[in-house]
Amino acid sequence: MSRYRLSSIRQFLLFLVGFTTCLWLNYVAIAQPADPIQQGVERYRAGDIPGSIAAWQTALTTYQKTNNLTAEANVRAKLAIAFQQLGQSGAALEQWKTAIALYRSSGEFVQVGRLLTEQAQTYSRLGQNKAAIALLCGASETDQCLKSEGSALQIAQKFNDRSGEVAALGSLGEAYRLRGEYSKAIKTLESSLKTTEGVNSLTYRAAVLNSLGNAYVGHAALNEQRADSARLRGAETKAREFISNANSDTSKALGYFNNSLEIARAQNDLLSQMRTLLNLVQQDSRTKSGNAANRLPEALTLLNRLPNSSNKVYAAIDLAELQQRIASESATSLQAQCPSRTIDDTQAEKLLQQAVTIAQSIQDSRAGSFALGNLGHLYECRKDYGKALEFTKQARLAADQKLLAKDSLYLWEWQAGRIFKARSNLAEATQAYERAIATLEGEGGIRDNLLIAEQDLQFNFRDNISPLYREFARLRFEQAESLPIASSGYQKQLDSALDAIDSLKLAELQNYFGDECVFALFDKERVDDLERSDTAVFSSIILDDRTAIVASLPTSDNRRIKKLIWISDSNKLKADIKTFRLEIQKFYDPTDAYLAPAQNLYNAILRPFAADLDSAKVKTLVFIQDGLLRSVPMAALHDGQGFLVQKYAIATTPGLRLTSPKPLNAQGLRTLALGVTQAATVDGEAFKPLENVADELNQVVQRSPGSKTLVNEQFTRVRLEQELKQATYPIIHIATHGQFGTIPEDSFLVTGNNQKLTITQLENDIRRFSRGTEPVELLALTACQTGIGDDRATLGIAGITVQAGVRSALASLWYVDDAFTEELIAQFYENLRSSMSKAEALQAAQKTLLAQNKEIHPAQWASFTLIGNWL
To answer: For 654, what's the count of Cα atoms within 13 Å in the CB-facing half-sphere?
Structure first.
């Protein structure tokens, strides 16, 4: 988790305080000073959270003995808030649940609604925003707010509890924002803002304005990502439109932040002022407006006026991070990396030490772990590894206090691994990395929540989680290099590295789609069936400086042996990949400009293994690619004598354990064939007619008895749903324009009547309607394209095979003249009927085109790639 994301979480907590404190004070009883409830209130306000808990637990015991249910519910609600402040979310949830049940039994439904909102906020803190939305609105398969009976929003509106309605709408808007659903977040928060007009609380209004600012910041980031994706696929008009929208969003965000700050200042609300100032400083830092340095002194002065609390700890940590970010002139995460140049971090150190002191004084282990860990990182960047390790160990201890939210523990295990490695203590480094990964993935692990939360910061996945797996793989590779290749130790080190990378591939897909879908993983024993005696599997891992290629090769005694080679310059490799993709797509280029980069890539990736492949009589190559290599049409690599496809059948897969191991049954492969022949305009982009699509679909269905065709106006999402619901189709063939972008929103297929079917909608429909039946054997997507240099675009295609349960996908990496597509596709399906594997069927079809026309440009056949099960 990057500090950038941690800052966002802390701001979210500060947002909640506005609602939590106000609602809580609305129903706190007036008591005598000697009363333990009032004692707890005073201790809480003074920052003595453990003291407040002790006082309220005393009161709780009294109320339980006297069977005073309302008073018991009241005190449990206070205990929940206090436990939450200490990071003990599990204890907080238990108190919320019991308090809600007590209020419900006594018919105090207004309090039930308010506490449901509090409980939802706790779930959101844990990244479980779907659970939060269910409490606020009611569970919904479509994520629409149903305002179901008994939900927080329904109760507030039913009993005209305007304060509760503001809180429920505000919390709902935050949950949507944290899921990356910005349009819904903005609409919901605007409703909350309007509702504040009927509530006599400017604190509420300031909180909602701040949240709206954050929602527009996320929307701006999304538009910037979409602009980058559009540029990569050459859609400059769309890119300019997205940038214009992003600029507008940023302007609105700053307006809301400034309005929130103005109200907070007028109310002398120090916490709200700090919350909004942090947002403004972070936004100024992100946009490099130059205002951040001017706002920092005000924030530092304000920090010293705040009473000791968890929020003050987090504010101090944020300010320390922002100090370093501004000083280093970098808007990127600093968690797993250090500033690019030497900076004066004295002020940051003082802030972190202050944060540690406050956290320890209020006994907040969770806040303390972040303060100590960040202090350890500061010393790591100074290369003072002794102090760095000391603080990191303290952070690790503070984080491992039976907290439900352990999103700091893996950070400090990872940090310890880096420090041990820097000190050449490889054994302890390995153990620390393994503990970090186990914390993410083990029982009660937090990785899934990290991947799907904060979708506005989705690309920080590359800072938050990806480097951990890559660093661990590098460590294993380097340890393997010191051992003989034939030794069991060498093989074990490579196996461990590849297991980590396999987990990374799964995480990348989850992060791309950004939902809670659990991908099916296949047992290692079953996966072994895929690696047959004539098959070699190549895995690539692109690191900052160099790239690892690991080949899993068959041996004469039915074993497999893995070998590692390094490509020495990752930057040169990436440049070669981009050049190759650019040149090979030039259909009518009379030169062979693609040939040199095709040979360069072959020499780097495959030539070191050529002798091994020949001696093992390998016929099929399977690639588990990384980064930009996912967009490489491996079939068109050239060894100086011929193309790779002329010698091997070729497939790619996101990971072996993500690949269905069942071979193809070539009998009864009825097909649902869909396509668009007409010109279309979708989202302002024009797509030209595909004149040969009708013939292509006819060729497909002729080879598949019992098939069905839907063309042009017949091809809609509704008709697709109907057909999938009514009948089982082992093959779904879609011949239409499509594009795969950096984010799912920009990955879609063109349907009839100028409509579109997003890749997320397609996988959802296939998954929903094939439930309980055999998975789809093959999904063919012709006439699609991905952006050159877009290392995430192909995740959309790969994700279909995994998330929707499709065994294999056949897709094009760029648009191909549909006359050549028709010919290749017809031959491919004919080959499938002759009991070839899918990879062999594609190879034979591509070789046929080559044989029939030796002058054919590889752009016409190399685009098609097989993803998933190649059998």
So the answer is: 30
Contact by Cβ (8 Å): 436, 417: yes
Domain, as residue range, for 272: 201-293
Number of independent structural domains in the chain: 3
Q: Is residue 369 included in any domain, yes or no?
A: no
- What is the pLDDT averaged over residues 552-571? 92
> Quick check: is 552 in a domain?
yes
Q: Which amino acid is at 16?
A: L
> At which of 259, 293, 327 does a domain end?
293
Q: How many CB atoms lie within 10 A of CB 318?
A: 29
DSSP state of 453: S
Name residue 553's beta-bridge partners.
561
The candidate with the shortest Cα–Cα distance to 760, out of 774, 746, 779, is: 746
**273 CB-near residues (< 8 Å, 6+ apart):** 261, 264, 265, 302
3-state secondary structure 730-753: CEEEEEEEEEECCCHHHCEEEECC
Residues 6+ apart with CB under 8 A from 223: 242, 243, 245, 246, 249
What separation in angstroms does the CA of 496 have from each of 46, 189, 491, 503, 799? 50, 47, 9, 11, 24
Cα–Cα dist 570/823, whole Å: 37
CB atoms within 10 A of CB 854: 6
Mean pLDDT of the chain: 87
H or E element in which residue 542 lies: strand 535-542
Structure tokens at 248: 């507008």
Instruction: Say whether both 546 and 631 belong to one domain.
Output: yes
Cα–Cα distance for residue pair 172/181, rounded to 1 Å: 11
Of 293, 309, 333, the last residue of a domain is 293
Query: What kind and span of H or E run contains 69?
Result: helix 69-85
- Residue pLDDT, tens place only, 422-461: 999 999 999 999 999 998 887 655 666 666 554 444 445 6
How distant, in Å, are the alpha carbons of 681, 714, 722, 749 from that of 752? Answer: 10, 7, 16, 10
105-145: per-residue pLDDT in tens? 999 999 999 999 999 998 888 778 888 999 999 876 556 78
Give the CATH number of the domain where residue 637 resides: 3.30.420
**β pairing state of 547-554 and 755-758:** unpaired
Phi, psi at 199, each rounded to 5°: -120, 130
CA dihedral in degrees (90, 95, 100, 106; nearest 10)? 160
Q: How far apart are CA 280 and CA 230, in angstroms?
A: 29
Does the pLDDT value for residue 612 go beyond 60? yes
Same domain, yes or no: 742 and 843: yes
Name the pTM for this structure: 0.89
The answer to whether residues 652 and 740 belong to one domain is no
Residues 654, 718 share a domain: no
Cβ proximity of 328 and 339 under 8 Å: yes
Per this entry, what is the length of the chain? Answer: 871
